[in-house]
From TrEMBL:
It catalyses: (S)-4-amino-5-oxopentanoate + tRNA(Glu) + NADP(+) = L-glutamyl-tRNA(Glu) + NADPH + H(+). The active site is at residue 52. Belongs to the glutamyl-tRNA reductase family. This is Glutamyl-tRNA reductase. Substrate binds at residues 51-54, 110, 115-117, 121. The keyword NADP applies. NADP(+) binds at residues 190-195.
Amino acid sequence: MSESFRVVSISYKKAPLQIRERLALDESETKAFYLKLKEVFGIAEALVISTCNRTEVYFKSDSDISSEVIKLLAINKGVSSSDIEEYFEIINEESDATNYLFEVALGLQSQVIGDQQIINQVKNAYQWSADMQMAGPFVHRVLHTVFYANKRLVQETSFRDGAASTSYVTVDLMESFLPMLANPSILVLGLGEIGEDIAKTLFEKGIKNVSVCNRTKEKAVELAQSFEMQVLDYTSLAEQLQNFDVVVSSVRAEAPIVKTSYLAKKKSITYLFDLSVPRSIESEVENIPGVVLYGLDEIQKRSDEALEKRKAAIPQVKAIIAEMVSEVANWSKEMMVSPTIQKLKNALEQIRQDEMSRFLKTMSAEEAEKMDKVTAAMMQKIIKLPVLQLKAACKRGEADTLIDVLNDLFDLEKVKV
């Protein structure tokens, strides 16, 4: 039985965050897991993608060992497999698994559709697979085709146009005015999910001079260390707020915590983003000269517009994926017959060499060279049609019959590849 490309996946679609985070793998854990896949199951090709939204194991296997792979992952993370199995999706059909990988890598399966981070995460996963010698011919082919599809997506569709999440819209807006400010200082106030995303996005875009502030200081310190930022003590907010040029607030509070009085003495332009519900910045701050306030409604409107553009481009993206998956499938089928083609070439070459050796002793060097060229050209023409027929049979799913005929005609089982 030939090997098939398969996947086991746990993602935000079925599993809550508290389950997903228990199975997340960093680089060292991912590489160690590759070794386990090889040692325990003899898997030679695999790709492990692990982000905050998903942990997925793609692998080539001649049988369905999905449950065993899930159990191995659970063991490695110190989790009971019975606690997590119900959250997994399993795809054992090669074309479906390949299509799913394309959709994940290009952002169709992301929480924020068209997510631009996922393709870089897939590139990292591919590098780690290659580092562990787990990226065989199939994984290499699929991933290079994925990256080509990503280039086409950017060039041919509007799927990546604009920012479709609150954090990305906010940072995009910041980038429109930051160059106009002299060494601007930025404060991220409140480190819930949105605040943390903002801080992470700023870090990934290389934006410096950022401080974080949170009512729970420990979280602010931890995040600041991860993203190379400063920490503003929450108790100093009233006195220190006027020192910042940009403030992004996503604090959950019953009443606004950023008061108009905190900015009353501010002389330079200040940009405020209120991403909280209810509002955490007093609306009256807009009355202060030089203060610009962006509310959540405006941010969400921009996000929705970008999201609608991306949704409209989905049919184009799926058409690109279908084309690329078909190419991979045709290549994979041809790979199945490549050993037979090579054996046939070797068998015919052996016949040519044997026949030439019978006459070489009676020939001059010039005559031998001519005969070698003539017979080699004949062999190329003789083998051309069987090779074309084999490849055509692959696409029809009928290669097995032709392989059997060629094996019988030329006794290919005895021929080395």
